[in-house]
Amino acid sequence: MIDFSSSLYLGLYHPSCELESWGQLSTGKPAILQETPQAQKVAHQLAKLQGFSSGLVGTSTLHLFWDVFSLLPRNKFIIYMDEGVYPIARWGVERGRARGIQTRVFPHNKVDRLYYLLQKDQVQKYLPLIVSDSWCTHCGKPFPLREYWQLARQFGGKLLIDDTQTLGILGKNKNKQMPFGYDGGGIVQWLNLPPKNLISICSLAKGFGVPLACLCGDKETIGWFKKKSKVRVYTSPPSMAPIQAAVNALSTNHVKGEYLRKRLYGNMLLLKQAFAKHGFQLSGGIFPFQKLELKHLHHPVSQFLLLKKHHITTVPVKSPQGFQLGFFIRADHQLSKIVWAAKQVSILIQRKGFTHEKSHILRNSQFGRTVG
């Protein structure tokens, strides 16, 4: 079996034997009353890794997005959201809109349309909060964040990024030998964006393999959030299990993160080359999530089930272009299995019966949803 359905890109699993023990799982207190030293340390390290001056940890990106958009003053900001953002950030924006904050949704990656909306709204003298993801898995490239950041700065607002996809993968000082860059600090470091006017919310669940989120920005922004947050008053903070897993992930990143990223990049290239050898082209750019177009097929769910019977697990993906088979590449994938899988998938696609496998699952399942 080879599994291409897990987004634990660096192959970090954090078994209990690798983690420091803890005396109690939870403090039983909201974060507003007490944050553990370990949580504060993790927040500081994550902020520094991404190039920010301050940060804090949260239970999930859903908690953080919900809280941020619950706190925005209605008479001060207008939200501008790229329509291609992942649902979690979108739910936060919807929370803000439900509270009466003006919201504009502009076409994916259309900087000119965003500029038009910003110009049009200038008469209201509200500050813009531009909301975007970091990397588009459909396009295989980053969102136009530098342009978004420049517009946010020009109009006196801020850019809020969901950087879940690239944290732990991309980093600073990218070059031809290592397009991912180094250190794993995410998209802000990879694009060398100044942290001014920037806020980052991201989960550690992909690159670092930890169900924990962080909010990072300047000291003023994080201080405002700590003072105003409702989630930190009415919900429990992250338990010690994910905090200790984050400590382990950051330690591993410091010790052998570059080795894991180089191996990950090599595995991604190998999969693309192996498919090309059999006449198939994968899309996804340099990122370790690659997609195989199946334009001549009905739906990929039946193919997903057939591949699973042959011990290959993929991800059926719905995209603007149609249906695709998705492949999450990990650093711990074995080279021989990558080559074997590409060959087996290619053979099965070329079989006459592959296009006629039927499945009733598509109508009632999550397989038709977009992978973010």
Automatic annotation (TrEMBL):
Cofactor: pyridoxal 5'-phosphate
Gene Ontology MF terms in the entry: transferase activity
Entry keywords, A to Z: Transferase
Name listed for the protein in its UniProt record: Aminotransferase class I/classII domain-containing protein
Organism (species): Rapidithrix thailandica
